Amino acid sequence: MGLRFEPAGVATFAQNHDAVAGRIAAAATPDSTSISATSTAFGPVGAALTNAVAAFDAALLVAGTDLSRAYHEFADTTRSALTSFLRTDQVSGNRAAAAARTLI
């Protein structure tokens, strides 16, 4: 039984998490133009609605920013783990090769 490790696949996995983080951040960013238009269209009567939408948008921005950050951090951790794995693999390979030369 063997283990097959695809460094390019792991790197792509990290890149995909960065891409998702970007999409989350973009989707969570409030559209201030829309809020302003609502306030203008409905006047004083729409103030409560406008305030509620603004509060929701603010909460969504905080949650989206946190989630986006978590995706970026996971991508960074994945890249760091990949670098460590490849470094360890290289060092272990060098040691095994040196040991084999010593035995021969």
Automatic annotation (TrEMBL):
Gene Ontology biological process terms from the UniProt entry: protein secretion
Domain of life from the UniProt record: Bacteria
Classification via InterPro entries: EspC (IPR022536)
Protein's name in the database: ESX-1 secretion-associated protein
Organism: Mycobacterium szulgai
